[in-house]
Every structure is written in structure tokens, then in C-alpha cells.
Design brief:
Layout: E1 2-3, E2 8-12, H1 18-29, H2 40-50, E3 53-61, E4 64-76, E5 80-85, H3 99-115, E6 120-124, E7 134-137, E8 141-147, H4 152-158, H5 161-171, E9 176-180, H6 183-200, H7 207-221, E10 222-229, E11 232-242, E12 245-253, H8 257-260, H9 262-276, E13 281-288, H10 292-299, E14 304-306, E15 309-313, H11 330-337, H12 341-352
Parallel strand pairs: 5-6, 12-13
Antiparallel strand pairs: 1-2, 2-3, 3-4, 4-5, 6-15, 7-15, 8-13, 8-14, 9-10, 10-11, 11-12
Helix pairs in contact: 2-7, 5-9
Organism: Sphingomonas desiccabilis
Pfam families: Acetyltransf_6
Domain BioF2-like acetyltransferase: 164-297
């Protein structure tokens, strides 16, 4: 614990203490900028699944939490070491209204980076720190969120005309829609998601990551929705549910899914499913500006919103850039796309556990 001026203390949360975890989760739920990726459950689950290290920094004034900063230490032989807030999430930067407390957490993160020889800190959202070594990127990633309509007819009306026609065709295709959390659901999701990311040229995450997140968030907080065609899964998405918002997070389709419009059927079915669960907002997640996924989300009527990510790089160190848009990965991506799926799904998790 570090004692600072004005009654402020900074310490590392005790993640083996259920009362501590509940206290921090309650703080996150009470913050307007809170996300599932700020929760101890997220950081702990992703760390268990990938072998990376997770810690939660807490700033307190007396008995009250003033701010938090979740930190995942990512170590990769291919991509180096970085502290990320939060690993494997699209959000999770400093959280809390107390600016002094947030600044204290950033200083502690810098100290940890020095101690762990991490040349990079990535903050995914939250106030951008000011000081030497920090840069802010507001142009690479876009977020997409809009309300869920009151019923299917209103949902269709909310989709722009050209995309609405595609969704209508998908709804008439007679797909089987299944939701659940069973071993079958997990196996089908991994098979579909693994093929989807292989086709994009990126390695798939370990199967344990999906299982651990499902377990950590429980039946009320996470499930899998799968679209089957002729009894075979062709599209699948693992979603989080938190504070009235559904977060379709890990989703994709097989090579056949596009022609079948299975992804259109999947996301419309998820909107219906989330509405039935009491959700009122649909967070379509982040996409890189200028990419096909970003265009797909805009076509569904989701307004793009720039996301600000702050990065600190130690003097003289090369910035960590594991983005598949980095030109130096172009040939590797092309080679990965040609791998047999069984090979990609066996080797991919070893690589992806260090991407975060």
C-alpha cells in the first residue's frame, strides 16, 4: 500500500477476497464509464485462461474507493511485454471521478512497468494521462452502440434500407437459432470462431478463454448464440450482458456464412434475445476505421464513435503494435490464411494468448 497526501492510498486489490471483489464490482457498476472489462471477473478469467498476470489497482480515500485501474501484464515472445488496461478487452482504462486518484494510479502503473521491464502501457479508454512518453490515438478504433428497439418490426425499421433487405432474406432462410452455455455450445462456438479468424489471417484465442469468461460471468452475464444451417453451425457469438447492454464480443462465421447471410440472422436474433433478457442497448464493439467490419456495423445503423486509447512508451523503446493492419505482418497474415484449420486452431492459441 502506498500512502499519499490528502488521505489518498493506492494498493493492489486482494482478488482472493470475495468481499473485496464485490466491493470493486459495485464501484464499477456505479460509474457512468464502467464496462464489463473493468470488472475483476473479466481480468481474473482472462488471466486464468491465458497464463498472463492480472492485478487491480485501487485508490481509496478512507473507506471509499476513489478510482480503479485494472492491469494485465502481457508477455509474448513475438510481441514483447506490455501492461494493458484491460487485457483481452476493448475498454478498461482508469475509472473514477477523482482526478487526483486517477493520476496516482497512473504513477503506480508506471512504477510497475519499470519493475517488470515492460516498455509499453496501453490504456483502453478513460482520461488520457499527460506527461512524457504518453500519446493518444483517437483515429484507429471506432465504437458502435445504439438502443435496442421495442420489437422486431421496430428493429427492422431501424436498419437502413439496403441492409434491411439482407436481414429480411436472412430471416426467411429458416436457420436454427440456439442459445446456451453447454459444452456443445462452447465447441460449436470455437469451431466457427476459429475458422472465422483463420480466414482473416489471425490466430484464435485458447478455448479456455471462452470457457473461463462464461463461468466468471455466470448465466445472467454471458451466453453463446449459434446459427445452424442443415444441422451444422455456421455463425456463433459469445456475448456479455451487463447493466442493460448486450456486448456481442467474440463472434464470427464460417466461409459459407456470408453467402447464407448467417451473420445477419445471428445479430438480429441476438437483438431479440437480448431484448427478452431485458437489455435496452446493443454495443457492437470496436472495429478499426476503414475496415469491412466497421462498414458492416454502419450499414446496420450504428453510428461510429472514435475511441481514444492512450499509450506510454519508455524512452528509446519501440512502440508495441500487434495490429493486423501493421504492414510488417502482411505476409504472415497471408500465410496464416492458407493454413489447414486444424493446424491453425492448434498453434493459434499459443500465439494469441500474448496478443491481448
Amino acid at each position: 500500500m502506498t500512502q499519499l497526501a490528502a488521505g489518498l492510498t493506492v494498493r493492489t486489490a486482494r482478488l482472493d477476497d470475495a468481499a473485496e471483489i464485490a466491493r470493486i464490482a459495485g464501484f464499477v457498476a456505479g460509474q457512468s464509464g464502467g464496462t464489463p472489462f473493468h470488472l475483476p471477473a473479466w481480468g481474473a478469467a482472462t488471466a486464468r485462461a491465458t497464463g498472463q498476470h492480472f492485478a487491480m489497482l485501487v485508490a481509496e480515500r478512507g473507506d471509499a474507493v476513489a478510482a480503479i485501474l485494472p492491469l494485465t501484464t502481457l508477455r509474448s515472445r513475438l510481441f514483447g511485454t506490455a501492461l494493458v488496461s484491460t487485457g483481452f478487452g476493448v475498454a478498461g482504462g482508469p475509472l473514477g471521478d477523482d482526478q487526483v486518484a486517477q493520476a496516482a494510479l497512473i504513477e503506480q502503473a508506471l512504477a510497475i512497468a519499470e519493475a517488470e521491464d515492460a516498455p509499453t502501457i496501453e490504456l483502453r479508454g478513460g482520461p488520457a494521462p499527460v506527461g512524457a512518453g504518453w500519446t493518444v490515438d483517437e483515429g484507429r478504433y471506432l465504437g458502435f452502440v445504439r438502443p435496442i428497439a421495442a420489437d422486431d418490426a421496430a428493429e427492422l425499421a431501424a436498419i437502413p434500407r439496403k441492409q434491411r433487405a439482407e436481414v429480411r432474406k436472412a430471416l426467411a432462410a429458416g436457420f436454427e437459432i440456439a442459445t446456451g452455455r453447454s459444452r456443445r455450445d462452447l465447441a460449436e462456438h470455437f469451431a466457427v470462431y476459429g475458422e472465422s479468424v483463420r480466414n482473416l489471417g489471425t490466430p484464435v484465442f485458447p478455448p479456455a478463454l471462452f470457457r473461463e469468461v462464461l463461468d466468471a460471468f455466470g448465466p445472467e452475464g454471458a451466453d453463446i448464440l449459434t446459427v445452424r444451417h442443415g444441422g451444422r453451425p455456421v455463425a456463433s457469438v459469445l456475448s456479455l450482458y451487463w447493466r442493460g447492454t448486450v456486448y456481442p464480443y467474440w463472434g464470427g462465421g464460417t466461409r459459407a456464412a456470408r453467402a447464407l447471410r448467417a451473420n445477419d440472422a445471428m445479430y438480429f436474433a441476438l437483438m431479440r434475445h437480448a431484448r427478452d433478457r431485458g437489455c435496452t442497448a446493443f454495443d457492437f464493439g470496436r472495429s478499426k476505421a476503414g475496415t469491412g467490419p466497421a462498414a458492416f456495423k454502419k450499414n446496420w445503423g450504428f453510428p461510429p464513435r472514435p475511441l481514444a486509447y492512450a499509450t506510454w512508451t519508455r524512452d528509446g523503446a519501440a512502440p508495441r503494435d500487434a495490429s493486423p493492419l501493421n504492414p510488417k505482418y502482411r505476409l504472415k497474415i497471408a500465410a496464416w490464411q492458407r493454413l489447414p484449420l486444424a493446424v491453425a486452431n492448434r498453434v493459434g492459441p499459443w500465439i494469441a494468448r500474448g496478443l491481448g
